[in-house]
Design goal:
Shape: globular
Number of strands: 15
Strand order of the largest sheet: 4-10-9-8-7-5-6
CATH architecture of the largest domain: 3-Layer(aba) Sandwich
Number of helices: 20
C-alpha cells in the first residue's frame, strides 16, 4: 500500500497536467474531453511502468506534468491519424485490390470534388425542371462507347451480376459452364451469388471443356438465362474448349432465352493499340449478341468502383424496376467521377496521358529503369548498412483479375539483408518499418529480398523525402 501511494505521489494530477502549455495546445486541437482521456491513458501507462520498475523519467524520480502532456499529445496525434492513408504502391501490381485499385484521373477528381462541395443535378432534369433519373448522368456515354441500346449502373460488378440474375431468372435456372464458376475475390463465389439471387445453378460441360451441345441440352421451360463468365483471375491451359459468346448468343436467341455476359474487369478500348494483350472490349461483347453485358468501373476502365450493365433496352428497363436496384445504386460523388472518366474515352489517342491506370500500364521500361538508378543511393542510405540495395529488372502485373497471365517488364530496387543469419526476420522488419512512415511504402518480399517495383511511383521527390524519415531503430 505504501509503495502504491509512493508511486501515485510521483505522478502529477490531471488538473496539473491540463495547465501545461502542451496540454492547452492539445485542447485547442482535439477538445478538452479527448485530452482528458489521453492524459488518463498516459498516467495509467506511467503508473504501470513505475509499478514494474521501468524508468519513466530520464533524470527524475517524479514524472513531470510536461512529460505526461507530451505523451498524451503523441497518443492523440497517433489516434487522429486517418485509416484511409495514401501509400506508395511499390508492389508491382497496378490494380491492387487491397490498395484501392484504380487511381482516378484528375478530371474525375475534380468532378467528384464539385459533387462533394455543391448541390448537384443528380435526379433533376434541368431541361424540363422536374425530377429525373440519376443514371441519365452516364447512360448516354455508356451507350455511345459500347454500342448498346441502354445502360444502368450499380455499386460494383458483383452487384451488377446479382441484379441481372435476380431480375431475369429468379425462381428459374441459369445455365453456366463448369469452367466459369469462378471465385471473384474475398471468398465471393459465383454459385453463391447465384443462390442469393434466387437462381438455380445448372452446370454444363466439364472444368476444362464445354461444347455448344452442352448448353443446348439443358435449355428448357425452366431456363431463365444463360450466363457467360469471364475467367478473370485464372486461365485453364492445355486440353481445353469453351464456346464463344457469339455462338452462345445465337443459341440463346433461337431458344428465346437471354444471354448475360459477365466480362468482369471490362475495357472500353482495344488494349492492343497501347502495346498490351488484346482483351475483349465491351463493344465487342455487345456486337456478338449478348443481351446484357456487365463489367467493372475500377479495374481496366480506370474509374471509381462501379458495376455497369449495358444491353437491350427492355431488359435494362426491367432491371431498373427491380426494388433491389435502389439498394445497389451509387452515390453522386462516384457518378460524377464516372461521367468524367467515361468522357476521357472519347479521345483514345490521349488516354494514356489522362488516365493513370493506362499510363502506369504503358509506362516505358527505360523510364522505370532510369528511375531505379536514380533512387538506389537514397534507398541505400535510408535502409542503412544492414541491407544491400540493388537496381534490378522485375515483372509487374495488372491485378484485380485483369489479364491474369499478362506480366509487364519493369524495374525496381531489391533490398537484401546483410549477414549470415536472420535474413528473413530482417526483411520482415524492414517491410514493417516502411509501413510506419508518414506515407507507408508497400513492396513485396520475393526470392529472399524486399522488392520495390517502381512502375507505379509517380512522385519521385515525395518518395525520397518520405524515405529520409526512416530511422534505424524502427527496423530493430
Amino acid at each position: 500500500m505504501e509503495s502504491e501511494i509512493s508511486t501515485l505521489s510521483r505522478i502529477p494530477s490531471v488538473d496539473e497536467i491540463l495547465k501545461t502549455p502542451a496540454a492547452q495546445q492539445a485542447v485547442t486541437r482535439f477538445g478538452r474531453p479527448r485530452v482528458v482521456d489521453a492524459i488518463r491513458h498516459a498516467t495509467a501507462a506511467a503508473r504501470r511502468a513505475m509499478g514494474s520498475g521501468e524508468a519513466v523519467a530520464p533524470a527524475a524520480d517524479t514524472l513531470s506534468a510536461d512529460t505526461v502532456a507530451a505523451d498524451a499529445t503523441a497518443w492523440l496525434e497517433a489516434d487522429a491519424r486517418p485509416h484511409a492513408r495514401a501509400v506508395f504502391n511499390l508492389t508491382g501490381t497496378v490494380l491492387h485490390t487491397n490498395l484501392g485499385r484504380a487511381v482516378l484521373a484528375e478530371a474525375a477528381i475534380e468532378a467528384a470534388t464539385i459533387a462533394m462541395r455543391e448541390a448537384l443535378a443528380l435526379e433533376f432534369d434541368l431541361a424540363r425542371g422536374q425530377r429525373g433519373e440519376r443514371d441519365a448522368m452516364v447512360r448516354g456515354l455508356l451507350c455511345e462507347l459500347t454500342g448498346a441500346e441502354d445502360a444502368t449502373v450499380v455499386n460494383n460488378n458483383a452487384a451488377a451480376v446479382l441484379l441481372a440474375l435476380n431480375t431475369l431468372a429468379k425462381g428459374k435456372e441459369a445455365i453456366v459452364s463448369r469452367g466459369e464458376l469462378i471465385e471473384i475475390g474475398g471468398a465471393f463465389r459465383m454459385p453463391e451469388i447465384m443462390a442469393r439471387a434466387g437462381v438455380k445453378l445448372v452446370e454444363v460441360g466439364t472444368t476444362n471443356r464445354t461444347h455448344e451441345k452442352d448448353y443446348a441440352a439443358e435449355i428448357g421451360p425452366k431456363t431463365g438465362l444463360i450466363l457467360k463468365v469471364h475467367p478473370s483471375n485464372y486461365r485453364i491451359e492445355g486440353f481445353t474448349k469453351s464456346v464463344p459468346a457469339g455462338s452462345i448468343a445465337a443459341l440463346a436467341r433461337a431458344s428465346h432465352v437471354p444471354l448475360l455476359n459477365d466480362l468482369g474487369s471490362g475495357t472500353l478500348v482495344d488494349l492492343a493499340r497501347y502495346g498490351l494483350t488484346h482483351e475483349q472490349t465491351v463493344a465487342e461483347a455487345v456486337a456478338e449478341g449478348a443481351d446484357l453485358v456487365t463489367f467493372s468501373g475500377d479495374k481496366l476502365l480506370g474509374g471509381p468502383q462501379a458495376g455497369f450493365i449495358v444491353g437491350r433496352r427492355e431488359l435494362i428497363a426491367r432491371l431498373n424496376r427491380n426494388p433491389m436496384k435502389r439498394a445497389l445504386r451509387i452515390d453522386k460523388i462516384r457518378l460524377a467521377a464516372i461521367e468524367a472518366t467515361l468522357r476521357l474515352y472519347r479521345d483514345p489517342d490521349r488516354l494514356t496521358e489522362r488516365l493513370p491506370t493506362l499510363r502506369m500500364l504503358t509506362r516505358p521500361l527505360a523510364e522505370i529503369e532510369a528511375l531505379a538508378a536514380r533512387l538506389k543511393p537514397a534507398v541505400a542510405a535510408a535502409t542503412g548498412a544492414g541491407f544491400a540495395a540493388e537496381a534490378i529488372a522485375c515483372a509487374s502485373q495488372i491485378g484485380s483479375g485483369s489479364l491474369p497471365s499478362e506480366t509487364l517488364p519493369s524495374a525496381g530496387i531489391a533490398l537484401h539483408a546483410v549477414g549470415a543469419r536472420g535474413k528473413g526476420r530482417a526483411l520482415a522488419g524492414l517491410a514493417a518499418a516502411l509501413r510506419t512512415l508518414d506515407r507507408p511504402v508497400i513492396g513485396r518480399i520475393e526470392n529472399d529480398a524486399l522488392i520495390l517495383d517502381l512502375r507505379c511511383l509517380a512522385d519521385e521527390a515525395a518518395f525520397v523525402r518520405n524515405l529520409a524519415t526512416l530511422r534505424g531503430e524502427e527496423r530493430n
